[in-house]
Amino acid sequence: MRTLITWCALALAAVVSAAPAKECAHKVKESIPPPRLWVKERPAPKDLTIELRIALPQPNFFELERHLYEVSDPFHERYGQHLSKEEVEALVTPHPESIHSVNEWLASHGLTESALTRSPANDWVRVKVPISLAEKMLDTEYHVWRHTKDDNYIVRTTSYSLPENLHEHIDLVQPTTLFSTLRGMDTTFRFSQDTPAPLSADAPPINIPSASGGKVDASCNTTITISCIQQLYNAVGFKPSGKNGNQIGITGYLEQFANIADLQSFYADQRPDALNSSFKFISVKGGLNNQSIEEAGAEANLDVQFAFGLTHPIPGTFYSTAGRPPFKPDVLTPTNTNEPYTDWLDFVLSHPNPPQSISTSYADDEQTVPESFAKRACNGFAQLGARGVSLMFSSGDGGVGDGDSDPATQQCFTNDGRNKTQFVPLFPPACPFVTSVGGTVHVPETAVFFSGGGFSNLVGVYILSFVSQFLNKLPKGTYAGLFNPKGRAIPDVAAQADFFRIFLSGRIISIGGTSAASPTFAGIVALLNDARLSKKLPSLGFLNPLLYAIGANFPKGFNDITIGNNPGCGTPGFNATKGWDPVTGLGTPNFGVLKDIVTGPLARF
Ligand SMILES: *[C@@H]1O[C@H](CO)[C@@H](O)[C@H](O)[C@H]1NC(C)=O
Ligand SMILES: *[C@@H]1O[C@H](CO)[C@@H](O)[C@H](O)[C@H]1NC(C)=O
Ligand SMILES: *[C@@H]1O[C@H](CO)[C@@H](O)[C@H](O)[C@H]1NC(C)=O
Ligand SMILES: *[C@@H]1O[C@H](CO)[C@@H](O)[C@H](O)[C@H]1NC(C)=O
Ligand SMILES: *[C@@H]1O[C@H](CO)[C@@H](O)[C@H](O)[C@H]1NC(C)=O
């Protein structure tokens, strides 16, 4: 790596004295216009503690990316040769000079090693400081901001600075410009008496040629159970080993707890052979696990019941990550919180054997996540992929964008101060290193109207041929200016996403959202991994290159969804079409076909 010594660093070096190191003048590192719908209320309390999270550059990330694509490309000779934790860390570690410069800067503010927490690769440093010190370090002023719609509060700034000599040694500092909108993707929620009446028990099964036995119970049209998923996705009769090292994980945020009593009721209802089994609970940064049945979370219960119900006896893990990004200034919160994905990433990256299939049903509007931060979080997901972990994310519940809640306009605006109308994709599903899962409904399957889809402002190369096939069919000028046709396209795949029958606080409810689709798809991936691990084949890891290769070569691996659209932002959204589309991606999985592809001679392509 080239060593760049700025005039200022030279000037500092020339000051040969025992005097404390002087800093270069501060220069703005990042600045954003006031984010839409947030208003500045008052200066932040000076003694409020925040945890600064500092990202040091990863000068060899392009190397990690090369390894990632090689070991994830089924046509490559290195397919499946995932990297070890140590190999990945070596590829994202910062230059020693960056570590040294940042250490000096922190020390000049009285922050020495014992105050710091470092990621395993040393590419992130965290330190708790009072607002007064953060303001000095970043030459900024923090304020309490209020969201005008939901009255949430957050402590942030729209601009921060760093000494000029540090600009090349620090990618970003948060919390500063990140006005996050993290939310669960469990959009529809009804008590089961509000769901459409199930067809009578003796209604004839629905003919679905790709399903197990070519038929699916009629009841699955309006009530999704574990058995429905097994039938529809051709997985009836597959018995995972559960003892070959395979695991599945579910992440939980926003103080959502998966209730064990509800899980047992669910098992009694839908998976009696799993009764008495449970999952491993892991607390990340003090994430709670309140098992009081009233505290059960709809999102967490849905994710856990379907992911673990589909994959029993594969060992399951539920991660509860602390932090509710909207900060409540009236509550005595000891520390303000950061974007929790990175807390979870730090944690899971530090573990030698994370689950090989992990589902997350939470996301932010991409435009509320500064690109600097999105890139670094996305790079973290790439590290897990290189280690053989498949990451599934719900694609979103607002179609091409949630829009304003004013039903008259339903417009979607950019967050950059220009009030430009634009579709709003979600992050992390927009990260090219994760698998984004959209939604379907009914049997035979059609796209569900809320299925998040569209085009990100991040880049994702491997799907371009599919995307151009779609875009070429789109009438010229369709939604011109509303989306970035060169961006990473969302979603990659889909699964059922409505009328899921689960237990919540002791009651049966029917729930939907791409929140249902992601753990379902992750469950199918865990079953595929189980079949592979039993044959001593490596886990599937970063899935997308494989999924698109299957889409191109073995179209029967997915059930193509061609009916439906995903309205949003006051438009009808995109249409589900033959082939890939920005509503349901490649389609829903056919486990039986996929298993033969990933375990049979076809595995070599
Ligand atoms: C499934 O339910 C939908 C919506 O209620 C209905 O339009 C459709 O006809 C049903 N399909 C079958 C096969 O019964
Ligand atoms: C679960 O535990 C109960 C009580 O210990 C027992 O009666 C039952 O057989 C167990 N069920 C299974 C499937 O292991
Ligand atoms: C946890 O559950 C108990 C009841 O068991 C309740 O009183 C308490 O408020 C809950 N704690 C949190 C942090 O939600
Ligand atoms: C954007 O819209 C908000 C209200 O939603 C308005 O207050 C603001 O002036 C607008 N800004 C521009 C640049 O049009
Ligand atoms: C979706 O399909 C309808 C009906 O064929 C058509 O009128 C509409 O233009 C299509 N929309 C897009 C965005 O392709």
UniProtKB/TrEMBL annotation:
Name the predominant localization.
Answer: secreted
Task: Cite the CDD domains for this sequence.
Answer: Peptidases_S53, Pro-peptidase_S53
Q: Which UniProt keywords apply?
A: Calcium, Hydrolase, Metal-binding, Protease, Serine protease, Signal, Zymogen
Q: What are its cofactors? A: Ca(2+)
Q: Where is the active site?
A: 299, 303, 515
Entry's InterPro entries?
A: Peptidase_S8/S53_dom_sf, Peptidase_S8_Ser-AS, S53_propep, Sedolisin_dom, Tripeptidyl-peptidase_I
Identify one Pfam family in the record.
Pro-kuma_activ
Domain Peptidase S53: where?
Answer: 223-601
**Localization of this protein:** Secreted, Extracellular space
Query: Which residues are Ca(2+)-binding?
Result: 560-561, 579, 581
Signal peptide range equals: 1-18
The cofactor note from the UniProt entry for this protein is: Binds 1 Ca(2+) ion per subunit.
Q: Which PROSITE patterns match?
A: SEDOLISIN, SUBTILASE_SER
What domain of life is recorded for the organism? Eukaryota
Name of the protein in question: Peptidase S53 domain-containing protein
Species the sequence originates in? Somion occarium
